[in-house]
Amino acid sequence: MAGDRSPFVHRRWSCFPTPRLIFWTSIFAALILFLFFHSPPDLSDRRAVAAKWGGHSWERRVLVSARPRSHGEVDASRGRGHLSVLVTGAAGFVGSHVALALKRRGDGVVGIDNFNSYYDPSLKRSRRMLLDRAGVFVVEGDINDATLLNKLFDIVAFTHVMHLAAQAGVRYAMRNPGSYVHSNIAGLVSVFEACKAANPQPAIVWASSSSVYGLNSKIPFAEKDQTDKPASLYAATKKAGEGIAHTYNHIYGLSITGLRFFTVYGPWGRPDMAYFFFTKDILKGKPISIFEGPNQQSVARDFTYIDDIVKGCVASIDTAQRSTGSGGKKQGAAQLRVYNLGNTSPVPVSKLVSILEKLLKTKAKKRVLQMPRNGDVVYTHANISRASKELHYKPTTDLQAGLKKFVRWYLDYYSGNRKRLYW
Ligand SMILES: NC(=O)c1ccc[n+]([C@@H]2O[C@H](COP(=O)([O-])OP(=O)(O)OC[C@H]3O[C@@H](n4cnc5c(N)ncnc54)[C@H](O)[C@@H]3O)[C@@H](O)[C@H]2O)c1
C-alpha cells in the first residue's frame, strides 16, 4: 500500500529525476571530463612512443645489431665467445657509452630507450645517431612494454641485459614522483619479468646508485653498510630495486649484479647535473648557486669519470655467472652481487667550479646558499675495495683531466661543430 512506503524510499527511487539530481549528475560528469582531459603532464612520453616498433625490416635490424662480430670466435682476453647484450637506456649518458664500448670489442648490442623529455631529447637523438653509425640499433620503446620486451627476446637469445634505463635526478622527484615509480620500480620489474621468462635467461647487470647511502654519516660508504635512510624518492626507488633484485634472484635464479654509481660525469653527459649546467651558466654569464651544508660544511662529491664507469660495467658483465632458471623456474642458486663504482676521492663543489673557470677561461658569478632539503646529500665517498678485488676496477681519471675532456666536447657540441664529434 502506498501508505506503507517511507517518503525517503520514495524520493530516492522515483524514476523521474528531480532538478537537484540532474544538477548533481551534471556536476559529477563535468568533473570526470575535467580530470580526464587535465591529467598532470607525464614527461615519460609514454603515448608518444607507442607502436614505433615491429615489422619485418625492424626485426631484421634487431637481429643484425644483436649479432656478435664473428659467431664462434673466442675473445682471447675473456676466453669465451662474444656476447649479445640488450642495453636499456641506451640513448642515455651511461647507456650510450656502455653500448658503444661493447660494440667496439665485438659484442652484439641492441638498445632500447623511450627518449623521454626529462632533459633535451635532441641530445639523446644525437647519441643514438652515433650509435647507429657504430652499428648499434636503438629501439624506441618503453621498458614497461612487456610485448616489446618479449618480442626482443623472441628474436634474440640475449646472453646479458645491461639495464640502465631509469628516471634519474633527485630533485625532479618532488615535481614528478610518478615518473620514478614508472621507470625505476614498474620498469625494473618489467625487465626482470622478461628476463625470467626468456630461454635461456640472460645475466643482468643494472644501475643502482650511491644515493642509497642516503643520510649515512660513516664514510667511505661500503656495500655492507646499512642503506635504510634514503634522502630522496629517487634513492628510495633504487633501494627498492635492490630488494626486487634479491627477490628475482631468490625465486627465479636470475644472476643479478647491482652497481652503485657515484656522480658520473664526462662527454655526452646529463644536462641536469651540476658540472653540466654550471658550464652552461658560466659561459652565459649567469650566476650559479653553490650549496653548503649545515655549519658551512662544504658539499663534496666522489665524481667518477664515464670511462672508468664503463670499465666497471663491462667487467661486471664479463664476471657475471649464468642465470640458473629455465621455463620461468629456478634450477639452482644464482649469483647476486652489489658493487660501488666510484672514484674514492671526493671533491668539494667549489673546487669543481674553480676547475671549470680555468678551463672555460671565464670567472663564475657565484652565490653561496644553504642546501635546501630537496633530496641532495652533503657528501659522497665510495669504498671500492670490493670492486677492485672482484672486478679489478681501478679508476684512472681525476676530475681535472675528466672535466677537460667534458669541456672540449661541450664546446664542440654546442658550437654546432658536430662534424668533429667523437666519443
Ligand atoms: N649519471 C650518474 O651520475 C648516475 C649516478 C647513479 C646512478 N645512475 C643510474 O645510472 C643509470 C644511467 O643514468 P644516466 O646518467 O645515463 O641517465 P640518463 O637519463 O642519461 O639515461 C637513462 C635513459 O633511460 C631512458 N629511460 C628512462 N625511463 C625509461 C623507460 N621507462 N623506458 C625506456 N627508456 C627509459 C631515458 O630516456 C634515458 O635516455 C640510471 O639507472 C641512473 O639512475 C646514474
From TrEMBL:
Protein name in the entry: UDP-glucuronate 4-epimerase
Family: Belongs to the NAD(P)-dependent epimerase/dehydratase family.
Quaternary context: Homodimer.
Localization per Swiss-Prot or TrEMBL: Golgi apparatus, Golgi stack membrane
InterPro entries according to UniProt: Epimerase_deHydtase, NAD(P)-bd_dom_sf
Residues covered by the NAD-dependent epimerase/dehydratase domain: 85-322
Annotated transmembrane regions: 21-38
Alphabetized PANTHER family for the sequence: EPIMERASE-RELATED
Organism: Salvia divinorum
